[in-house]
Amino acid sequence: KTVGPPPRARANRLIMADKLCYGRLIAILCGGSGRAVAAYTIPGIIAFLAEMENVEALMTGLAEEDAPIRLAASHTMAEFALPGPLVEFESLHERHLAVDLLIANSVVVRELVRDGRAELGVAATDSSDRSDKALEELPFLDDEVVVAVPEAHAWAKVDEIELEDLVSTPMIVRDPEASTRQVVESTLAAEGLSLAPPLAEVGSTSAAKAAALSERVPVLLSRLAVRDAGEGFVARRVRGLRFPRHFALILASEESLTPGARALINHLLQRPRKEREPMRRGKSAQADRRLGARNVPQFRCQVREGRLSR
């Protein structure tokens, strides 16, 4: 005859098993032992399984936090706007966080985010019909395209460039899909004008600056790219015409963001306030609160230059 535990002990073990299983069904097959042995052994097995599940959940959470943030950014943002905030972000936290930065033009940045190859993008806003309504945009900062003039060029001596001179002078320009070029061309088109055939089309801001200095000719660039003294350029505007543009954080879904990406977004939206204060209205302020800050680790940054096959 097999002797089992008394009824009160069995009831206590059922209560214990229920607490450990949290209402879930766990099937355990026991053989070769009496019910008394099983009655004492099963709660221990259940406790072990529950502990293993807790460890697995903890490891999953840590893996999610430590996964690299897949960030795509336009050339202007990657070179002239993001380095400072990323360094600040590193200094605010104690744990390690990786940032995988892919640099491409704004059109490609949007495609990377939409296709899931980047969870966050920083790109120029697109007010045309080609703007992807499936992507969410959080206003980041204001910018303006200017004429970067080598100091040895005649335009460096004038305060503003005449519109007629701008449209009749061959210059260095970015590739056709770059926001820098599109903003200027669309603004001129609204006036019934167009740029002169370019001397060269280049794929990045750094290459455009190098070509302009080498050839001693003007180049159309972001104002952010020519605000530092000592690079051999002066920034000039066109008389009676401006080429403003805006940059935004691009994301496909807030729900799919990792904790690290959420914290980075929160940090970027808080800085630099003086440069983007005019853009901070309704939706972006609400987004700040929705994406609230979380403690995340420091980062290392792996940079790649992006190209998209068509």
TrEMBL record:
GO cellular component: cytosol
One Gene Ontology term from the biological process aspect of the record: regulation of DNA-templated transcription
UniProt domain LysR substrate-binding: residue ranges: 66-271
Biased composition (Basic and acidic residues): 272-291
Ranges where the record places region Disordered: 271-291
Pfam families: LysR_substrate (PF03466)
Cited InterPro entries: HTH-type_LysR_regulators, LysR_subst-bd
Positions of transmembrane segments: none
Protein name per Swiss-Prot or TrEMBL: LysR substrate-binding domain-containing protein
Native source species: marine sediment metagenome
Higher taxonomy: unclassified sequences, metagenomes, ecological metagenomes
